Amino acid sequence: xxxxxxxxxxxxxxxxxxxxxxxxxxxVTAMLVHIRIPIAGTGGMIQLGGLPLFIFALxxxxxxxxxxxxxxxxxxxxxxxxxxxxxxxxxxxxxMGYIVGLAxxxxxxxxxxxxxxxxxxxxxxxxxxxxVAEGILYGNWIAPVGSVPVNFFQVAxxxxxxxxxxxxxxRMIA
Length: 174
Prior knowledge:
There is one protein chain. This protein is about 75% helix and about 5% strand. By secondary structure, it is mainly α. The protein has a two-stranded antiparallel sheet with strand order 1-2. Helix 2 packs parallel to helix 4. The relative contact order is 0.15.
């Protein structure tokens, strides 16, 4: 029979491993699948790091979602030559994962509507967050308007793919 300390340690190790895998998969997916989009003035990119971010948030909740988004996307920026964006991605990605994970925690029926709404909120966070980031980095508040569609698709594509995958995986591990 195991004592409480052993069970708590195993749980902590399990959480650490899941969070580490989440961060790594978000970063690696973004590095492997990203497309630079030439937009007048600022440029842009669509990457699919949101796919594992959303799946981990749906499966493990707001803490893992926030960790995966924050550190996975910031690490991608640091390793891929987008270093100036890393602090912004840390905050934006963390908020995205937190919101989707919170919706998952409050959705015991595993209904699609709360997940979809949380991903729409994540799109809003991404659009507003990177708009502000571009405004700060470039000192221009007009040019970032051109990035709005790119930032929307940067969330919409992974959201569309992760909804059916995350919903099915959540049923399997429940």
